[in-house]
């Protein structure tokens, strides 16, 4: 082969390579980025109804020091429930691990937008009869992959959105768990304060009995009864300290950090009453719009619809294009070629049928989950109504009546009209009602928190 023939052969190969490059670049023009930053922000946007989204509240795996600084800022001046939620989202290790799943899913999405590498073949054939040499070269690529690329990308995009919703759901559950743990910690502190008030009441009664003993107006039996009541109340107070420590440690585990003993802010103006609850029909609408499981199933429906189209395309599973060049005896030949699988024995009917059944299955799951979400809203709503009614009854009626009854009984005891037994009974009723009032407030808070979690709508907030 002469020099000009080699140059022509090389030029033809270059032209073929350029043509292939144009085809590939036009196909991959919409290739996605590997950076998951936008995905992280989208996850927070999914939870914007229950968690304020700011630039400081979005986790960035590459800025751990910034996260630590933000957590320190939130801890300054006491810790509220809203601040605890933000810290949990930034600092909880299980959620941090879930953030990296987003990066994995993003990489899989990007991979779905690529096609297989082209195959290059080159041969050199020498003739035994003469000095002629034949050069052959070809480059081939899968046209079927390019053809199915939009559908494959759509399927993987739906799966990726489902992963974002899955992480979003885990964040929502964490927010609910954090608020419940914070409420338990606050409730234990308030229970301790109530027992301190109760101890003051039993101590006051003991002082009253001792005064009457000095005046000779009571017996040793009554004095011993008052002392025993006071000692028992001291024991109850000590037991509440154990619960305070337990709930404190549980909150620390969720937040992923060590808290100072007095850092929790218990003086919070949280609006929580019967009138604050939204109409149940509006809550159902909010739940259907915000619950990740429903939106995940919607994306699965889209993926299943795209998969049916993809499986129909894959009836011809192998369709390759090629560009070939041949140089022989000084002549140069080149041109395109195709390689096509003929669907005679396998027409992909089984996988098409499977994709159709999967679509029907996902649609049925969506309707079933939608009904379940509605039932969960109804149950949580009526549970919150009952809990709030009980809390209101204790705070507005039962405890004030018990306090008034104890005052009247003590006055009658001083006047000699009632025995100490009547005073002890009235006092015990008040102590029990105070404890029940604190418990009813905690139960109401928990019930409303459950309703928030079911609806993915904020009903309680620090003001």
User: Strand order within the widest sheet?
Assistant: 1-2-3-4
Distance between the termini: 88 Å
Gross CATH architecture: Up-down Bundle
**What is the strand content?**
5-15%
CATH topology: Outer membrane efflux proteins (OEP)
How does this structure look, described?
The chain has 463 residues and is α+β, with helices and mostly antiparallel strands. The protein has one domain (3-455): Outer membrane efflux proteins (OEP) (Up-down Bundle), CATH 1.20.1600.10. Helices cover 69% and strands 8% of the residues. The protein contains eleven helices and four strands, in the order αααααββααααββαα. The protein has helices at 3-27, 37-46, 64-75, 81-91, 93-112, 143-214, 220-255, 280-290, 292-313, 349-414, 420-455, and strands at residues 119-126, 133-142, 319-328, 331-340. The chain has a four-stranded antiparallel beta sheet. Strand 3 (319-328) and strand 4 form a beta hairpin. Helix 2 crosses helix 6, helix 3 packs antiparallel against helix 4 and helix 8 (280-290) packs across helix 10. The longest helix is centred in the middle third of the chain and has 72 residues, at 143-214. It is elongated, with a radius of gyration of 37 Å. The model is unreliable at 1-10 and 19-30 (pLDDT under 50).
